[in-house]
DNA sequence: CTGAAAGCGCTTACAG
DNA sequence: CTGAAAGCGCTTACAG
């Protein structure tokens, strides 16, 4: 026998038509039990597995979903754990729905064409875009082509593409409120890059909470890397030597800030209280263990997949879903 | 117009046969330049993109490759950076070859059936298996079915499946030799789990190098996690309070060991020199910065993809490729 | 160099 | 409930 068995061969062996085999394979209820069994035996004996390409050609479905990861997240071979978390969440949900995950790296302009062509070639039923820098045109352009899309994080700029995000503003407020409740009075922040929603929103949350308390804001901006956290922290100390607390918009930057504080001879939390954001694995092992805001990365991945599957199935979905964040109190604040 | 344009429509618009359009799309050299241009214009005007399913059905190729990640690597939401590195390397190479990456999570027995069926459905042209615990039957079973497979790391047990691995034995020897050259005399090791090749080989390297130097070996076993590194380190100190060096089989375990040494009042490297393995991002930021063995994770991913593509193309490939490791000397030893 | 035709392996109205 | 037949959108010998 050459190659894998086909429907045709199963039909012949079972003594029925191809249509009937197809019905059995696809679980149609209108098949007489006796015939169903004969067919199933033939399938088992031959080790038949449906050819996906042939099936897609007629159903116009592929049962695969693309997950687009922005290139920049990968460029630095980073300690950040968002990528595996996203993948994990998305794949859990897709697996349960018996869909396949196609991974594409690259939010760079040069990758757009490739991704668009791929989606247009109907190689996937829909697209999940993990997160973006700036006002990426990709989600909108796919959306316009009628391809189901869900974004991770609110797209910047004009957009009607549905998205799933984590409540960054709320998380930042939790962090700042905690510092206020601990009696801190000069609360600075190391903000993230202002061309990313996470950077923008975490700073907005800081500002809003502080505003309610009448304290003035003290801001330095980093780019979510450890080094930038140290640099920003030094700058904050120069700007206000009397600051007694810092909300750092990412754990990685918080580690950098910790180093800078130590160099400057400040004790944490005695002199300066510190709260991070993300709750990466290493946060528990920092010295002192880092108080931080936990965001449900895996949950976000799952929710994105869930929404996309609904969209693919033709259902209506909310234009946005926001997941709650949570403060994890350890020793640094 | 309903749906996306087809070959047929392009042919009609260009006033040629479907065969000719197909030739132009696939870059056949036997097309008259003038006709080629007419067709290309029609393609551009219509925004034609070939339907992948239809193409696969006749070519019997899908131009996609599956990357299988073991579930366990994901279970702990870990600090380990191997996964993104693998993905990065594989996707770089596949992108260059214009192949797609399908990601499947799960080396668990329950996932085997799903993966096998998927490969048999010809949804992918070949399979890359990132790494395995124990003697996983998956590579062999795919191999027997005639599906091109390449493994990351030598498969345990009997196997004829080609693999790409990093020279763990050599790396461990580099580490131990370095400690010997620094004049250390009582060199212990925290080994990795002995059901994983990386665990086994790094211990073998330690033993071999030590054996050449006539020193006795002092061994404790961890499971590559930070916590297990601390536990193992305490045990080593109890076993031999006079040890003056440790080769730890992973950086994460080395971080745990560092904590345990600090608790025990030992200075690193003054009292005890420490060498890790992996060179994860955090190694540079440890206190003291960690001397460790760097392994080319991205390079391994790329090489696996390269070998698999050759296999898919029908070429012969070596039964194994071993990539060199390198000692990165920092302050801990 | 180009076209007519067969065929890849399925699903799905449409009859019966 | 089952089968004959059409058709999904391509590629590729085979003629010419």
From TrEMBL, chains A, B:
Q: Which UniProt keywords apply?
A: DNA-binding, Transcription, Transcription regulation
One Pfam family, short name = Peripla_BP_3
Entry-linked InterPro entries: Cro/C1-type_HTH, HTH_LacI, LacI/GalR-like_sensor, Lambda_DNA-bd_dom_sf, Peripla_BP_I
The protein's GO terms of the molecular function aspect are:
DNA binding
Matching CDD domains: HTH_LacI (cd01392), PBP1_LacI_sugar_binding-like (cd06267)
Question: Is the keyword Cell wall biogenesis/degradation in the record?
Answer: no
- Protein name from the UniProt record: LacI family DNA-binding transcriptional regulator
Source species: Hamadaea flava
């Amino acid at each position: 026998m050459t190659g894998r068995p086909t429907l045709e061969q199963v039909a012949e062996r079972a003594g029925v038509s191809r249509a009937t085999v197809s019905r059995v394979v696809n679980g149609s209820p209108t098949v007489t039990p006796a015939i169903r069994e004969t067919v199933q035996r033939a399938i088992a004996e031959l080790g038949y597995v449906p050819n996906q390409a042939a099936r897609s050609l007629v159903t116009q479905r592929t049962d695969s979903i693309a997950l687009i990861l922005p290139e920049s997240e990968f460029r630095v071979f980073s300690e950040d754990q968002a990528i595996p978390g996203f993948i994990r969440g998305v794949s859990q949900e897709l697996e349960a729905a018996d869909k396949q995950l196609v991974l594409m790296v690259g939010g760079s302009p040069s990758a757009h064409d490739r991704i668009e062509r791929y989606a247009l070639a109907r190689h996937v039923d829909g697209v999940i875009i993990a997160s973006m820098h700036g006002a990426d045109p990709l989600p909108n352009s796919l959306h316009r082509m009628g391809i189901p899309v869900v974004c991770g994080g609110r797209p910047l700029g004009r957009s009607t593409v549905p998205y799933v995000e984590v409540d960054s503003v709320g998380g930042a407020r939790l962090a700042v409120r905690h510092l206020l409740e601990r009696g801190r009075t000069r609360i600075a922040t190391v903000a993230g890059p202002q061309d990313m929603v996470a950077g923008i929103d975490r700073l907005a949350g800081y500002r809003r909470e502080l505003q309610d308390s009448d304290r003035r804001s003290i801001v330095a901006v980093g780019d979510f890397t450890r080094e930038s956290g140290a640099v920003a922290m030094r700058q904050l100390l120069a700007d206000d030597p009397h600051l007694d607390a810092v909300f750092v918009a990412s754990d990685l930057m918080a580690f950098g800030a910790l180093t800078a504080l130590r160099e400057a001879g400040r004790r944490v939390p005695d002199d300066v209280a510190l709260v991070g954001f993300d709750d990466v694995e290493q946060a528990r092992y920092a010295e002192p263990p880092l108080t931080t805001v936990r965001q449900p990365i895996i949950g976000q991945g799952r929710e994105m997949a869930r929404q996309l599957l609904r969209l693919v199935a033709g259902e209506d979905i909310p234009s946005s879903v926001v997941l709650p964040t949570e403060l994890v109190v350890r020793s640094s604040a």
